[in-house]
Design brief:
This protein is α/β, with parallel strands linked by helices. It is built from two helices and eight strands; from the N terminus they run βαββββαβββ. The chain has one domain: 2,3-Dihydroxybiphenyl 1,2-Dioxygenase, domain 1 (Roll).
């Protein structure tokens, strides 16, 4: 159902470096570069992630309550993505841990303040 998600940035070079390193640690590369953004993903058959400069030309802002969740296939990957994000300058919003029966997650904010989580279920 979900094709892709986007978050905004006010510094494309900084955001690109952050996500190239974060997603690169998972073996995920850029799918597309376009004038106002970049998208990453393993292929077009699964949801992808993009960073964009807002179309209206105004500054990018974060939404209170908005979050992008990145599915992982193991707790070790959740831990690794969280650690990589923090190493790259992200801010902790919740260290890795079980949040409910069979739901393991870690939360962080990127360099622009966008909230993401890495999780595995089951």
């Amino acid at each position: 159902m979900i094709g892709y998600t986007t978050v905004g940035t006010n510094d494309m070079l900084r955001a690109a470096a952050f996500y190239d390193a974060l997603f690169g640690s998972l073996g995920i590369k850029r799918l597309m570069e376009f004038p106002n953004g970049i998208s990453w993903g393993p292929n077009w058959q699964v949801p992808s992630f993009a960073v964009v400069r807002p179309f209206d030309g105004k500054g990018a802002t974060v939404g209170n309550g908005n979050m992008v969740a990145l599915v992982m296939d193991s707790r070790d990957k959740v831990d690794a993505v969280y650690a990589k994000a923090i190493e790259l300058g992200a801010v902790c919003e919740g260290k890795p841990g079980e949040r409910g029966k069979g739901f393991y997650a870690a939360y962080f904010r990127d360099l622009d303040g966008n909230k993401l989580n890495a999780f595995c279920a089951g």
